[in-house]
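Lecture 7 notes: from sequence to structure.
We start with the chain below.
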Amino acid sequence: MSIINNKRSHNFLRYEEKYFALKNYFENDIPLTELASTLGVGDSTVRNWLNKIEFDFTNIERLKRLKPTYDNRRNPIHTDLPDWVKNEILTIKKQHPTMGALKLKQYFFRSHQVILSEKKIYFFLKQNGLVSERKKNTEKKKHDRSFEYSSPMEAVQVDLLTITLTGNQKVYLVTFLADYSRFILLSEYIPVKSMTGVIKLLTKVVKKYGVMNYIICDKGSEFVSWQSFTEFENLLCALDVELIASGPDTPQNQGKIERWHKTFRNDCERAHKGFTYQAEAQYKTDSFVNYYNYERPHQAIGGLFPADRFYGLADELENELQNYVNGNREEQCIYFSCNIKGKKMVVSGPRDNKLSIYQNIEEDTWQKN
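Predicted structure tokens for the same chain:
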């Protein structure tokens, strides 16, 4: 029985072909080596197929186990972009023009559990005049920026960014960033560059999120002094927080918050063509921080949202997302995830919005949506 041209890769075999070839192998007592040679695959590949269906040919549903799985980077499931994806890309690029093809791919996978081709996204952007030619990076890598702490509040980076408002008035954006997750704990403006302003904001962070083990900052006068022990350092001692004050050109310590500054400049400040008043700047910054924490995939953490890591849901989400990579959740999508007092949950359901959710409307009254 000639089942398939033996020059074809097993990646191109339909899963029905694999199933009925194996069925024929058992019914006609064909040697395994001969079957593998006929199909153009190795003996171990055939054994792997047999294990997937557990040597059971009576249940036709088991042939679905022979469907090829796709790595979300090398073998994207969607070879063309659906219309709804194209429309959403246009909307996203209008709001966030610096998002590139890879980040868009990560966004659709994390937000919609849809695996797209980065190349297809890139060409779509190019066709619509939404991307410039890629420039080859000729700069040599000087530092290792890959180091990170191992838990959400183990280390927090803090730094100031000078923002010039209309009329050349300067304000200072103080940002506290959780090193492990890249989650922005707080990003707030102060009118004067001072230690008092930084201390006030640090107190807000500690009250909301708890005490960190380390604070990482530069050697600016709002943090440390060469002549004396500062009020900022006194507060950290009282909180039992270790201070790591880095010198200039130390991206292995300050690299994450420096990258946040660059992202903020490009995607918020320049996107809004600057800010007129401090109140306006704070309003737009708060909106951007919310988007950055909860909706923007971060390439340095595998395309997850910073909130996924900060709230301890990274492993659960990665395990669930792997089901979509393996083709086990094609008709479903992730609705929400949460961590309530250590009880972690990732809820998936049908894509046709038939999932029933109970919502507390009033005290002791529950309504089904």
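Points to note: The first strand starts at residue 155 and ends at 164. The chain is about 40% helix and 15% strand.
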